[in-house]
Description:
mainly alpha
Amino acid sequence: MSDARITQEAADWHARLRSPSLTEADKTRFRTWLAGSPAHQKQYDAITAMWNELSALADSPEVLAELQRAEPVVAAPTPPVARGVSRRTVIGWALAASVVATVGIVVSIIVIVGTILFYVLVFGSLLAACNGLEPGVYDTGNGGTLTCG
């Protein structure tokens, strides 16, 4: 059996023996494991010694003083959860967009119709004025000229 495996088993037994749910069967299995190899006893003793040293260190005045001076650990605030856009908002924006599009179309139609009417009135009256005249340039009598043809 490898040293790493024996060390792991010794640590597992050390933890299990301190469990409040330790049974007599667990104690019997531990004694059997311990007697199975001198390496088991050696590793278990090493784990126990390390545990005792760490316990003594944890209870030392220096460590206790540091713990009292230490800032309490505060969890970082959780970022706000992004909320989805509500159905009402989507419908509202869609309605606003359709109104803007409709107004744009109506204004375009009015501009086009207005432009057509302007040209019909201006050029239609000019065409009517040339009705029956020979092609040429005529004096309008108010300082302007009329070109027909």
